[in-house]
Design a protein that fits this description.
It is built from 2 helices and 9 strands. Strands 1, 2, 3, 4, 5, 6, 7, 8 and 9 form a 9-stranded antiparallel beta sheet that branches. It is globular and about 65 Å long.
C-alpha cells in the first residue's frame, strides 16, 4: 500500500485561473494559492431513496454528483484582492472572482507539481469567502469554497 505524503518534501498545491491552460503544472499565468491550511475535494454522489410496502428495506438509485472544493487559508493580499494584471483570477483575486461570478478553472495537486504528481482538475465558481481575524488568530484567515460546475477529472501523471 502506498500513501501520498505531503510532509515528505512535496505539498498539496491549488492552482486557479480563467482558462484550463493557466492551471497546468507548467503554467505561471494563473494563481498558485499560498498559505493553505487544509483542502477538501468532495465528490458526493446523490441518492434518491424510497420505501415500498412489499419490501423490508429501502430501495435506492444514484443521482448526479455534487462536487466541491473547500479550503481554509491565511489571507495573502495579492491572492485575495488581486494584482490588477494578468488573467481574471490573478488580476481580481479570489474576492473579484467571487463578486463577479467569474468561472474559474482549477488543478488540485496531491503532492506537488513535479513529474510524478497526481491531480484533480475542473471548473467552477468561488463562494463562501468569510475573512476573520481575532486575538487568538491575529492574521486574517478565510474559508474558500469552489462550487464545481460538472465533473472532476483525475490526471494520473503530469
Amino acid at each position: 500500500m502506498g500513501v501520498i505524503n505531503v510532509s515528505a518534501g512535496s505539498e498539496a498545491v491549488l492552482k486557479l485561473g480563467d482558462s484550463e491552460a493557466n492551471v497546468t503544472p507548467a503554467s505561471s499565468d494563473g494563481v498558485t494559492v499560498p498559505a493553505m491550511q487544509d483542502i477538501v475535494l468532495n465528490n458526493s454522489t446523490g441518492v434518491f431513496r424510497w420505501k415500498q410496502l412489499n419490501l423490508t428495506s429501502e430501495s435506492a438509485v444514484t443521482t448526479p454528483s455534487t462536487n466541491q472544493i473547500t479550503l481554509n487559508l491565511v489571507v495573502d493580499p495579492d491572492t485575495f484582492f488581486g494584482t490588477g494584471s494578468g488573467d481574471a483570477v490573478k488580476s481580481g483575486g479570489l474576492y473579484g472572482a467571487s463578486k463577479n461570478k467569474t468561472k474559474v478553472y482549477f488543478s488540485a495537486f496531491f503532492n506537488g507539481t513535479d513529474s510524478t504528481s497526481k491531480y484533480i482538475t475542473g471548473s467552477g465558481y468561488i463562494s463562501g469567502l468569510a475573512p476573520t481575524v481575532n486575538m487568538d488568530a491575529p492574521v486574517w484567515v478565510t474559508p474558500v469554497t469552489i462550487e464545481v460546475d460538472g465533473d472532476f477529472s483525475a490526471i494520473q501523471t503530469v
